[in-house]
């Protein structure tokens, strides 16, 4: 029989797969029936393989509000690897600011022209129309707790910002954050929707409302 060489899923695996797809369809159906906001945190689910951990709703709101105040009226905000802050900013539709999201995960391309594909390994590989020093504040959350990742992300941040930087990363990165970006730790302690093993903190280089 020609079918002998085709690998077959066990009935148990097949049932588990069907259950997974059903649950996924139900989740999507719920989002639609509830008039789900495409900018809500969780509308795009975390991918742990990409080291994605979304902020809690309270933290995302706090960081978004801080960015708006820091950017000022008509300000431009860049969210680098910080999609949950971008989503929270977009919920404030109609406010007097503009925002873009630089992100490796192409699922966020659903946000249209405001999405910019970004790989921290190539920190200055950015679109030509993304001019240097044109953002009033850059908020960034490097995906990995390594000096290499922070240093490369720092190149992007310094290229984009007019001056103000809001960095979110592990407490263990305090020395490297000061070294590469001249930022200092804030009193505000960010929380995630799932608890992380590493203590997380915010850092700024300006007088912020996070202290």
From TrEMBL:
It is found in: Cytoplasm. One of its GO terms (biological process) is methylation. One of its GO terms (molecular function) is protein-lysine N-methyltransferase activity. It catalyses: L-lysyl-[protein] + 3 S-adenosyl-L-methionine = N(6),N(6),N(6)-trimethyl-L-lysyl-[protein] + 3 S-adenosyl-L-homocysteine + 3 H(+). One of its GO terms (cellular component) is cytoplasm. InterPro entries: DNA_methylase_N6_adenine_CS, Efm5/EEF1AKMT1, Mlase_EEF1AKMT1/ZCCHC4. Keywords: Cytoplasm, Methyltransferase, Transferase. The keyword Methyltransferase applies. This is EFMT1 methyltransferase. It comes from Oceanodroma tethys.
